[in-house]
């Protein structure tokens, strides 16, 4: 490849479910079992056999009909039933504070964060480290704050080295003991203007010319409208080797891993990696629920003060979940889930527009989830995917092989070869959340997200009836979507 030719990336593949066509393993079993049952019933009554065939066809069709992102009728019904159950129980409404019925009268985080506890420890450098303990599933999360390098005016070779460093860091996560998954959260918001005002206004002399004074004051006042801030978080969620291990001991062991993890991130395009303290994590969650608080937090930091915010007060006073948005403390949020990854080759800047700050949006978070697979599991999956692609390509004979089947076979074989040569296999997904001031602004925000997803060559779908869960998953708290489902992974794969 010539030195001036930008490098491309691609070959993302959705794992093909086992079974015939799009039926899945369970759907294939239902179809074959239905055929056998129909034959047996026909020995008794032809009319009963006809009814059995119709019922089996309807049931098989429910397994076969799928959306572009692989969901069938039962997946959709499960989401609708879960929403109806939560609404009947009153779980879609949340009220906290001294006048609520919540124990303690504090503003505790709601929903999936209700059973999360905050632990504090120190890393080998003596820095305070906040560790989130997900008590329901006995998982622990480290949260790292990163200062990411921009790609403007950066040589292509340097960007390629950063991408290679990021790929190597993800591949090494497969050997990280007890790791359940990782996430990168990129949060953008308008600049509060507190830091600029603190730097400029005290330096204006009383005898300064009126024109100079007015120009500086205008710059300070216009800064929150024209400027923005970007924060990058990396979360790593672990499961301890022993179920009854003391949480404080687990937190200390995880903190000892921070230097090695941070060193890998520095080679992937970050200038500084620091662990977040308990107060930092609580402030990030509080600002997500009430964006207006961000300016007060920034003012306290500029004055050198510690807000002292505790995890038990990081939640909203009022929250209401609807099928298409999430209301919390006079703000409105809407979330989207990844439906389809790019089909062709893309450049390293493919997500740039999606990650950039967006005007008219109070706060935007893009969360990229990564699930590194162990080497044994990766080898089994890529080999099974290769066999499935080979079977589909050769089912109609070589002369009738269509272009899509041939492309899938080529991609599957390339993935198998790369995995055999030592490359890691990682499952990934993307969630996006935008927060605005009024409900009317949600439609404008949705239009902007649609434009940005088109430039990113991905497809996002609204998280209908799961808005509260999607909003919480995009927070830098280490919630992994695949760890929150009630259906085991084996059954989900079979569907």
Describe this entry's structure for a reader:
A hairpin with a 4-residue loop joins strand 3 (128-134) and strand 4 (139-148). Helices cover 42% and strands 20% of the residues. Helix 1 (24-42) packs antiparallel against helix 2 and helix 12 (375-394) packs antiparallel against helix 13. Strands 1, 2, 3, 4, 5, 6, 7, 8, 9, 10, 11, 12 and 13 form a 13-stranded antiparallel beta sheet that branches. With 495 residues, the chain is an alpha+beta fold.
Alpha plus pi helix count: 16
Helix fraction?
Answer: 40-55%
**Mass-distribution shape:** globular
Proportion of beta-strand residues: 15-25%
Alpha-beta classification: alpha+beta
Query: Which assembly state applies to the chains in this document?
Result: single chain
Query: Which spans have pLDDT < 50 for at least 5 consecutive residues?
Result: none
SSE series: HHHEEEEHEHHEHHEHHEEEHEHHEHEHH
Span between N and C termini? Answer: 42 Å
Radius of gyration: 26 Å
> How many strand segments?
13
**What's the pLDDT, averaged over the residues?**
86
Largest sheet, described in full?
A: 13 strands, antiparallel
Transmembrane segments: 20-41, 48-65
Organism: Streptomyces heilongjiangensis
Protein name: SCO6880 family protein
Keywords: Membrane, Transmembrane, Transmembrane helix
Show the helix and strand layout:
Elements: H1 24-42, H2 46-64, H3 73-89, E1 93-95, E2 116-122, E3 128-134, E4 139-148, H4 156-173, E5 179-190, H5 194-200, H6 210-226, E6 228-238, H7 247-255, H8 258-266, E7 270-275, H9 278-289, H10 293-302, E8 318-321, E9 326-328, E10 331-340, H11 352-355, E11 363-372, H12 375-394, H13 403-420, E12 426-436, H14 441-456, E13 459-462, H15 467-473, H16 489-494
Helix pairs in contact: 1-2, 12-13
């Amino acid at each position: 490849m010539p030195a001036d030719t930008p490098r491309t990336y691609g070959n993302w593949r959705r794992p093909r479910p086992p079974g015939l066509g799009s039926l899945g393993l369970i759907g294939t079993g239902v179809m074959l079992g239905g055929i056998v049952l129909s034959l047996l019933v026909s020995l008794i009554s032809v009319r009963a056999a006809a009814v059995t065939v119709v019922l089996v066809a309807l049931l098989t069709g429910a397994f076969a009909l799928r959306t572009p992102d692989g969901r069938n009728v039962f997946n959709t019904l499960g989401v609708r039933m879960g929403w109806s159950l939560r609404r009947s129980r009153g779980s879609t409404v949340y009220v906290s504070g001294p006048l609520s019925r919540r124990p303690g009268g504090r503003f505790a985080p709601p929903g999936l964060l209700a059973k999360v506890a905050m632990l504090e420890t120190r890393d080998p450098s003596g820095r305070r480290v906040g560790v989130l303990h997900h008590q329901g599933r006995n998982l622990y999360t480290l949260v790292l704050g990163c200062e990411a390098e921009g790609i403007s005016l950066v040589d292509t070779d340097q960007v390629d080295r950063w991408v290679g460093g990021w790929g190597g860091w993800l591949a090494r996560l497969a050997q990280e003991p007890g790791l359940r998954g990782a996430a990168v959260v990129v949060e953008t918001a308008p600049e509060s203007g507190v830091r600029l005002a603190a730097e400029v206004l005290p330096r204006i002399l009383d005898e300064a010319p009126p024109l100079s004074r007015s120009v500086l004051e205008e710059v300070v006042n216009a800064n929150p409208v024209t400027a923005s801030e970007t924060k990058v978080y990396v979360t790593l969620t672990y499961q301890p080797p022993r179920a009854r291990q003391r949480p404080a001991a687990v937190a200390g062991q995880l903190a000892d891993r921070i230097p090695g993890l941070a060193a890998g991130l520095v080679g992937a395009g970050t200038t500084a990696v620091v662990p977040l303290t308990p107060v930092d994590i609580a402030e990030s969650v509080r600002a997500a629920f009430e964006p207006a608080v961000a300016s007060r937090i920034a003012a306290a930091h500029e004055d050198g003060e510690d807000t002292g915010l505790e995890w038990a007060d990081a939640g909203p006073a009022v929250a209401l979940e609807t099928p298409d948005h999430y209301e919390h403390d006079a703000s409105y949020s809407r979330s989207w889930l990844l439906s389809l990854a790019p089909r062709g080759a893309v450049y390293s800047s493919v997500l740039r527009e999606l990650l950039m700050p967006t005007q008219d949006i109070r706060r935007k978070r893009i969360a990229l989830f990564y699930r590194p697979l162990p080497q044994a599991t990766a080898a089994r999956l890529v080999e099974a995917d290769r066999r499935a692609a080979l079977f589909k390509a050769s089912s109609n004979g070589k002369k009738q092989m269509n272009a899509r089947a041939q492309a899938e076979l080529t991609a599957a074989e390339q993935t198998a070869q790369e995995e055999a040569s030592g490359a890691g296999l990682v499952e990934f997904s993307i969630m996006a959340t935008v927060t605005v001031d009024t409900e009317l602004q949600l439609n404008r925000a949705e239009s902007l997200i649609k434009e940005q997803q088109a430039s990113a060559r991905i497809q996002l779908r609204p998280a209908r009836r799961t808005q509260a869960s999607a909003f919480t998953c995009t927070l830098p708290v280490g919630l992994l979507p695949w760890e929150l489902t009630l259906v085991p992974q084996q059954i989900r794969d079979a569907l």
